[in-house]
């Protein structure tokens, strides 16, 4: 008999709103928890996670496995509190069952933050993502929109996007409009909106949290990197105000010299953390982070030189400066050189590790 743990995850702890205390271990207790949760929130996607875990449990029993099934939950307060609770409950479940092979049952991208936490204590053999299939008519659409609107108001996870972000944009627009720089109100507001969209679009908070829980080295480098970026952004805002938001060649050179060093330091710190972690693991792939650090430093020095060059010719058009003084050609030479080095080292790594094994 092969032992395996089917683990349902509720990252933001919705089940506690129905009076379900986690961790829940065992089929009968999970059935009771699912019924209790379903009576209060019959249309919540977490209910499908619970029943899918039970369904998977029965399937494994029919295939001569010896499965265990459990439910753990995090917290809606913060990612840190959610990670702490998930780690504590996972440890209790593993200590009680003695099973180290886990099948995760999830229903959202946010729930995937539990993956590095589980990997620290067990082997993840599979991940089941629950997608609910539904067919709605035109009349049901209005009911559905009403439910989503109510959820957007009451659920903190959605209200901060549907109400928190617009509220922040309104405040930014009002503050800039009442300042001497009222003409830039829309520009600043769109900049704030664009920053938020980039952060959410690339799942930057989730990526940071995964690195945060993966290693103590990543925690230190993440804090330093964020601090460097924020300090650079503050200095950049100061430079913009001092230059009156001017867009001439000299001002652009000042903006680059102000922000680029802090941005480069942020990137170098992140890659240095990865490099340190790979060196401790004695990984051959550490050279990739060395190349990234060198490339970042070269680009930072190059941009700083370009900024000085642009500032030296305030009367010329920027495009004219970039092409007539060979700035673009220099950048192309640097890029091609680094690509060549990367390709050569990639082949050297493949030769050192040998051809990939076929399974």
Summarize the structure.
The protein is built from 13 helices and 5 strands. It has 359 residues and is α/β, with parallel strands linked by helices. Strand 4 (101-106), helix 4 and strand 5 (123-129) form a beta-alpha-beta unit.
Could you walk me through the main structural features you see in this protein, from its secondary elements to its overall organization?
There is one protein chain. This protein is an alpha/beta fold and 359 residues long. α1 runs antiparallel to α2 (45-62). Helices cover 68% and strands 9% of the residues. The radius of gyration is 26 Å and the shape is flat. The protein folds into three domains: 2-129, no CATH class; 137-202, no CATH class; 215-359.
Keywords:
5 strands; 3 domains; five-stranded mixed beta sheet; alpha/beta; 13 helices; 9% strand; flat; 359 residues
Computed structural class = alpha/beta
Please estimate the helix content: 55-70%
- The radius of gyration over CA amounts to 26 Å
State the low-pLDDT regions, or none: 135-139
How many strands, what sense, and barrel or not for the largest sheet? 5 strands, mixed
Care to count the β-strands?
5
